[in-house]
Every structure is written in C-alpha cells, then in structure tokens.
Amino acid sequence: MPKIPPHDVTQLLVRWKKGDEQALHELVPIVYDELRRLAHYHLQSERTDHTLQSTALVHEAYVRLIGSRRVDLQNRSHFMALASRLMRQVLVDYARTRNAAKRDGGCRVSLDQALDIPMERDQDLLALDRALDELARIDERQARIVELKFFGGLSSSSTASALSISRATVDREWAVARLWLHREMRKSAQV
Predict the structure, then answer these.
(1) What crossing angle do the helices spanning 76-102 and 54-67 adopt, rounded to 10°?
(2) d(CA 158, CA 165)
(3) Could you tell me the residue range of the domain that residue 41 belongs to?
(4) How far apart are alpha carbons 79 and 127 in whole angstroms?
(5) Distance CA 99, CA 107 (A)
(6) How many domains does the chain divide into?
(7) CB 27 within 8 A of CB 12
(8) At residue 85, does pLDDT exceed 90?
C-alpha cells in the first residue's frame, strides 16, 4: 500500500473531530498496517502464550476509539500515540481479568528489567501500569513520554512531535521518569 501523505491523515482527523464518522472509517485502512506493527510491538513484551493477536488488539483499540469522546488529534503521530495508549489499556484490562480469575499474587519486576527483557507475566504489566498511573498523577507529561516511548515504541523525535515539545525535553524527562519508575517498582517489589 502506498504511503499516504501526513496531511491527508490530518484532514481525515479534522473531519472526524468535527463529527464525520465516515472520516474515521476512511482513516483506519490508511493507517492499518502501522496499527498492526504497533500492536505487534506491544505484544512482543507479553507472555508467549498470550491469546490476543495483533489483529485482535488493533480491533479492540478501534472499538475503544470509536466509543470514546472526540479527541483533539492534531496529526498522524498524535493518532498513533492515542492508538498505542488504547492498546496498552486493552492489554492491562486483559491482564487484570486474567489475574482476577487466577488470584495467585504477583511477581514484580523493575523498569530496567522490563525495558531489557520481555515481560512474561501479566503481573509485571499491572505493576508497571500502577506505577505509571502514579507518575501520571505527579507529572502527566512524563507519564505520556513513557507511554509513547516504552509502550508505543516511538522514537524521541516522534514523541516530541506527538507532544509538541522539543526532543531535548523528551530525552531529559524520559531519563527522570525512568529513574522515578525504577524507584517506585523497586519499593513495590519489596512489599
């Protein structure tokens, strides 16, 4: 499929924001391959016997997107960032449901470990999600940077574009957020 110019995606996003449901239906086929790659990226850090596949994760995120309130999406990067966040929420909800059925307690992992090796347990994702929620209460922008870089697989440049900040700010806040999350996850692992 040929690459669609970013301004075409932006025009579709503007139409959708104004209430044109058809615009979203036109947009999804254009960015579908990117969404599948993003879903595949998310699923790489999940356990090997995970029952969700990339296609199902894309569809679940799409259902949440069309069911959500209108979001002020500026461009393709912002759309992909939102899609990444929705995919993360799907995976976290899936892990919570699975753990509710098991009720077997949880193993915790540090952020450094999570960044270096694939997560093999739903509990790891839930612990990171709880820490990330706490970070969002303290510093929303740092939490968004972690979501985009860690969960979304975006580069510092793409993250900067999605958040309308400089790359230097992204790099600086990413370093601070990693340290904070590392400390929080270490404290929760000791509990």
Answers:
(1) 110
(2) 10
(3) 6-190
(4) 26
(5) 12
(6) 1
(7) yes
(8) no
